[in-house]
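Retry 2 of 3 after timeout on previous attempt. Resubmitting structure tokens to design endpoint.
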């Protein structure tokens, strides 16, 4: 997943790294993951995990817009994580986590969202 140490990378590279990290976490045992998605969605996440997970999403937001707005960025991080999770969970459910086309579309979605925030 993206990390603030990636200062020199482009927005597309940071987004791709974030997407690849989320997808990789869902590829570990895809059959088990499908069962967990259907039976106990988001169960088992600790508060520590959730804080770190959100921090990683939020770390790419101010760098995309060029300025930080902590309150707005926190909301954007939650929106972004929910959108990515939704797409990745659907891909896991339908066996599409390895799809280059899906990866490209998801990267485009996140980039467009981040660029739209900086324009607005």
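Retry 2 succeeded. Sequence:
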């Amino acid at each position: 997943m993206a990390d603030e140490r990636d200062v020199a990378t482009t927005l597309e590279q940071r987004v791709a790294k974030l997407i690849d990290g989320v997808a990789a976490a869902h590829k570990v045992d895809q059959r088990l993951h499908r069962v967990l998605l259907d039976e106990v969605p988001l169960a088992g996440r600790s508060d520590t995990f959730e804080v770190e997970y959100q921090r990683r999403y939020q770390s790419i937001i101010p760098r995309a817009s060029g300025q930080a707005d902590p309150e707005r960025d926190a909301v954007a991080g939650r929106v972004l994580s929910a959108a990515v999770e939704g797409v990745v969970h659907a891909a896991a459910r339908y066996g599409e986590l390895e799809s280059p086309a899906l990866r490209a579309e998801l990267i485009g979605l996140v980039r467009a969202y981040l660029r739209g925030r900086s324009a607005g």
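Attempt log closed. Helices lie at 11-27, 30-39, 47-65, 70-93, 100-119.
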